[in-house]
Design a protein that fits this description.
The structure is a homodimer of 341-residue chains.
Chain A (H helix, E strand, L loop, with lengths): L1 E3 L2 E3 L5 E9 L1 H4 L9 E2 L10 H20 L8 E5 L6 H10 L3 E3 L6 H14 L6 E7 L1 H8 L15 E2 L2 E8 L8 E8 L14 H20 L8 E4 L3 H14 L9 E3 H4 L11 E2 L1 H17 L5 E9 L3 H5 L6 E11 L3
Parallel strand pairs in A: 3-4, 5-6, 5-7, 8-13, 11-12, 11-14
Antiparallel strand pairs in A: 1-2, 2-10, 3-9, 7-9, 10-15, 14-15
Chain lengths: 341, 341
C-alpha cells in the first residue's frame, strides 16, 4: 500500500527468515567479526582473480542463507541483488551459479535496501513465497576499478573510506513459522537522486549525506512517524564526515535525532584502530552490518524497531573524469522485531 | 499473483498510458524511423561527450512520455531504468534531472522488460499511481566502453551486432481513462541466468538464444498458454544468428512457433541495406522497438496480444578478458491491446 509519495507500508509485514553473511580478512579483525557466518583469511578466497573472489563471497552468502533457513534453492522464486563492479558481473555470475530467476540491481552502496524494499513489496503481495536479496563488495576488486590496484599502495586523504569485503543476503518470505519471532519489514522509502554539486570522489560520505537526510525526512513526512518511533536510525556508509554533515543538516531541517540513536554502518564494522580513514563503505557494507550485526542485536532484544538508510554514490570513474558532480541516493527500510501483530 | 514459479499474472492489467522514444542518426535512416518521437541528426546531441548525449536521450524520452501523457512529473512515484554503461551513470544522471524516486536496474539488453515487469507488479498492487520505466543505449558510448572508440574504425565479424542509439520509456499506471483503449500488461516471466559456455563477445546473439528459449518455455509452462495465444513473439536483440539458433532450440524442445510470428527487435529496427552486421542490439533496442513501433502497430490493430522477450548478455570487458563465458538472461512481458476486461 502506498502511504506517502515515495513510501510503501507493508500490511502483511514480510519476514526476514534467515540471512547469510560473508567477510574478508579486514572484517575478521573488525568490531563485529562475531556476526559473520564465514570470514576468509585472505582476499583471494581460492580464486584466481579478485572479481572471482567477489563472486564467491555472494555465492557463499546465498548458500549459507538457504542452508540456515533449511530452504531448497528450487523453492526460491527470485534473486534481487547487485554490486559496484562494472556491469555487476560478480552478482550476475553468482546468479548463474544459484540458477534463481534474477533481477540485477544497481544502486551503488544503496543496493542492499533497494533490493530489500522490492523483495518486501513482492512478498507482501504474494508475488513469491521466498525471495533472496543482497549486496556485496570486495576491497581489492573495487579499488582496482574505481581508483588504483591496491598493490600500488596509493595514498588517500582522511576523508576517503575503506571498501569492505563481504556479502550480506536475506531470505525474505511473506510469513515465518507460526508463533515464530522474526524481523518484519514494515515500510520502505525510495530515495530521489540528490546532488549538491560535490565533486571529490575521496569524500563520498560528504556527498551522500544530503541524500540520506532527504530520504529520512521523506520517510517521516510520508509515514507521520518521528525519530521517537525508532530505537535506531542507521545510515549505510556515510562515515565520520558524512555522519556529522547529516546530523547538521537534520538539525537545520528541524528533525531532532538523539546522537546515540543515529549510527552508521561504515562506523560500526571496523575497530577504531584499523586504518580505514573516515570509515567503511561499499555495497556490502550496509548488507553485512544489517544482516549480520544489527539483526543479531534485535534478536538479543537490544532494539525493537529500526530504520536502515542505505546510501549510494552513483558516480563512475568516467563521470568524475568528465568533471561531473556526484549524484547520490538513499533508500530506507523499517524493520520491527517480534511476532506478527 | 504468482501463477507459476517465475511468472506473475496481473489481475488488474496495468496500462501503458504513454511512451517516449528517442533515437540517433542511424535510427533516423532505419526501418521504423517514423515510430520515434525525436530523431537526432548527430551522435553528440549538443553535448560534449557521448555519455552525456546518452543521458540526454533518456532525459528527453522521459520528458516526452510525460508531455504526451499530460502527467506532471511530480505525480510520478518511481522511475525504474538502466543502461549498459559502467555504473549506469547515464540513467542515474537522468534520474537526477527528473527528480523521481529511482530504482537503478542492470539487466544489460534485458533491462527494458526487467523494468516493465517490476513496474507492472508495483502498479498492479497499488504501489504507485504512475511509474516511469525504460532503457537506453548510445552506439559510440557503448562501443568505446565495451570494444574500441568508434573513431578507430575497428572491424568486426559478421556475427557482431550494432548497438542502437536511443531510449524508450513507458508511463505505466494501474488504469487508463474510463472506456479508454490501451496496451495492458497481462503477465511477466522473470528469467534465470543461462550460460552454455560461449565465449565470443562478437556473437552475443548466439550466446543469448538459449536464455530466450528458456524464458519462453518457462512462460508457457507457468501460464499454460501456447504460442497460438499470441499474435507475435518478439525477442529483444538476438539478431540473425541468435534468432535462427532460438528457432532451432525451440523446435528441439517441441515448441512450435510459426516463423512469421517470431520476430526480433534487432532485426526490425534497421533497413536491410544498413551495415549493421547481424542486426541491432543494446539496452535501448527492445525499448524503442516496443514502445515505438510495436505499440503503434497494436494501436493500428495489427496485433492484439504479444510477448516481448528482452534478452541480455551479462558480460563485461573484464569478464571476457578473464576468460569467462557469457552469462545470459531474458525477461518476458505479455501485452494485450484493448479495453480492460
Amino acid at each position: 500500500m502506498l502511504k506517502g509519495k515515495q513510501t510503501w507500508t507493508f500490511a502483511n509485514k514480510p519476514v526476514i527468515l534467515e540471512t547469510g553473511v560473508t567477510g574478508g580478512p579486514f572484517e575478521a579483525n573488525g568490531e563485529i567479526a562475531g556476526d559473520f557466518d564465514i570470514l576468509y583469511s585472505d582476499l583471494w578466497m581460492e580464486q584466481d582473480s579478485y572479481e572471482k573472489a567477489h563472486r564467491h563471497l555472494m555465492e557463499k552468502a546465498v548458500e549459507l542463507a538457504l542452508e540456515k533457513g533449511k530452504i531448497d534453492k528450487e523453492k526460491v522464486q527470485f534473486f534481487l541483488a547487485g554490486d559496484l563492479i562494472n556491469q555487476i558481473t560478480p552478482t550476475s555470475f553468482a546468479a548463474r551459479t544459484n540458477g534463481i530467476p534474477y533481477f540485477g540491481l544497481f544502486g551503488a552502496c544503496s543496493t542492499s535496501m533497494e533490493g530489500l524494499a522490492l523483495s518486501a513489496f513482492i512478498t507482501n503481495y504474494g508475488g513469491a513465497n521466498y525471495v533472496l536479496t543482497g549486496a556485496s563488495s570486495h576491497n581489492a576488486a573495487v579499488e582496482k576499478q574505481f581508483r588504483y590496484p591496491t598493490e600500488y599502495g596509493g595514498q588517500k586523504p582522511p576523508t576517503a573510506q575503506w571498501t569492505i569485503t563481504g556479502a550480506g543476503v536475506a531470505l525474505v518470505a511473506p510469513n515465518g513459522s507460526k508463533q515464530g519471532v522474526f524481523p518484519h519489514i514494515v515500510s520502505a522509502t525510495i530515495g530521489k537522486v540528490i546532488d549538491m554539486g560535490l565533486k571529490d570522489p575521496f569524500n563520498m560520505g560528504g556527498a551522500m549525506a544530503p541524500a540520506a537526510v532527504d530520504t529520512i525526512l521523506a520517510h517521516f513526512n510520508d509515514t507521520g512517524l518521528t525519530p521517537d518511533d525508532y530505537d535506531l536510525i542507521i545510515t549505510g556508509d556515510l562515515g565520520q564526515i558524512g555522519r556529522e554533515t547529516a546530523m547538521d543538516l537534520l538539525k537545520q531541517k528541524g528533525c531532532k535525532i538523539n546522537q546515540e540513536k543515529f549510527k552508521d554502518c561504515g562506523l560500526m564494522i571496523f575497530k577504531k584502530d584499523q586504518p580505514v580513514m573516515a570509515g567503511g563503505s561499499g555495497a556490502g557494507c550496509s548488507a553485512v552490518v544489517l544482516y549480520g550485526h544489527i539483526l543479531n542485536e534485535m534478536i538479543q532484544g537490544k532494539y525493537k524497531k529500526i530504520l536502515l538508510v542505505a546510501t549510494g554514490a552513483l558516480l563512475s570513474p568516467l563521470s568524475v573524469q568528465q568533471k561531473n558532480s556526484i549524484p547520490c541516493i538513499a533508500h530506507a527500510v523499517a524493520i520491527e522485531y517480534g511476532m506478527k501483530s
